[in-house]
Amino acid sequence: MRGPSCSSAGRRTSSLTWESLRESCETCPSPRNWPSFRGWITSGWEGKKRWAREWGNSSPGPWSGKAVRRSDPGGPPRPGGAKEIFMEYPWTRFFHLGVVIPAFFPEARERKRTALDITRRLAGDPFFQALEVFGADDPRDREEMARVLRSSGKRLIFSGGAYCRRTQSNLHDLDPVRWERAVGNVKKIIDEAVLYGCQILYLMGFEAPPAEKREKARKRFAEALEVLGDYAAEKNPSDPLTLSVENFYIAQEDPFLIGPTLECARMLRDLRGKRPRLGLTFDTSHILQLQEDLHQTFSRVQDVVAHVHLSNCLIRDRSSPFYGDKHPPYGLPGSEIGIPELAGFFRTLRQQGTFSRVFPTGKPVLSLEVLTPAGRTPQDALEEAKDSLEKAWEEFAKTA
To answer: Suppose 39 and one of 43, 87, 102, 304 were both cysteines; which one would form an S-S bond, judging by CB atoms 3.0 to 4.6 Å apart?
Structure first.
């Protein structure tokens, strides 16, 4: 692929090495003279270089991309103290792209030292402007993770739903002792999320009790949100942590209590009168598993949405190993969410004014969430997800 012209370099950029290109850009007297391409990008400072796709013509519109000089706080130091530069991605004007770390990286779910190493790598990846983390058990690892995350310059979200499952912390348990224990466990991860500098922590419900007990269980869940919302506000009164609820599918023998999206949104609206830092984690896979219309549902609950998971599902073939809540790669044959569907969802977000609203994270966070399939490496799954996102945004930008 031939590189575009750069007046400061005086030759086609395809003939430049990465180091010489970087030197040319850093000494260029005018940003207008920089190469009009998205540029060489690296994957998490691993050194894997590739040409990124070009977007549009030399005068790109607001939805397409152009080279912008930025310093990367997560990158490695350079001689003389200079910071690495990278190209700003076109979607960063409208939202922060996140990654659900414990989805792609199973080892991160163990909350051990490996989780810190993985987080450190992703904190240095400029492709992502937000991280969804699962934390660490060892206090020393937590302190180091807090340092890494707070210095990354990224928006931060704590994956509390996975923690609730791991610790069996059921916030609508009808047993008072187990309910108190569950609330206490979540208070611990609120402390941890505040330590890391997170803006959002999301939670979930469990399997529903028998039908005659479900209304009482919903009240217990709402009570837990009130208690935890007050606790989060006390931990950081000037900028309280937002607690978000991720609703789950009901297409199984034992449905989850916090399922249908409109019901969840009604509960949150009732609670937000006194506790505005409560919201909804809108997971595209869960919406489809609930057999709800993705676009209509978003338009009806957007007022309570705190952030979004871009995830896929396969629900038409029960014999498939990817059936159900497996979050397969985007575009898997027979699945629901591929590049056209992602692009269509971006259109819905634009039409609903999502890109101009203010969220707990400033701009909204849209996070890639794929469970790494058997036989694949997390890095391969992540690279494929990145490519899908770029292609979807390119398709969206053509009609924007």
So the answer is: 87
Cβ partners under 8 Å of residue 320, min gap 6 = 314, 334
Q: Are strands 305-311 and 242-246 parallel, antiparallel or unpaired?
A: unpaired
300 and 198 co-located in one domain = yes
Last residue of a domain, one of 69, 88, 107: 88
What CA–CA distance (Å, rounded) separates 335 from 312?
7
Average pLDDT, the chain: 83
**Res. 215: pLDDT tops 50:** yes
Do residues 361 and 307 make contact, with C-beta atoms less than 8 angstroms apart?
Answer: yes
The total of other beta-carbon atoms located within 10 Å of residue 106's CB is 12
| pLDDT one-digit tens code per residue, 80-90 | 333 333 447 99
CA dihedral over 213, 215, 216, 220, signed as positive or negative = positive
Residue 324 pLDDT level (bands cut at 50, 70, 90): confident
Mark whether 252 and 238 lie in a shared domain.
Answer: yes
Give the total number of structural domains in the chain: 2
CA angle 18/21/23 to nearest 5° reads: 110
Question: In terms of C-beta density within 10 A (0-12 exposed, 13-18 middle, 19 or more buried), how is residue 338 classed?
Answer: middle
d(CA 215, CA 93): 43
Question: Cα(191)–Cα(203) distance, rounded to whole angstroms?
Answer: 14
Range of the structural domain that residue 79 is part of:
5-88
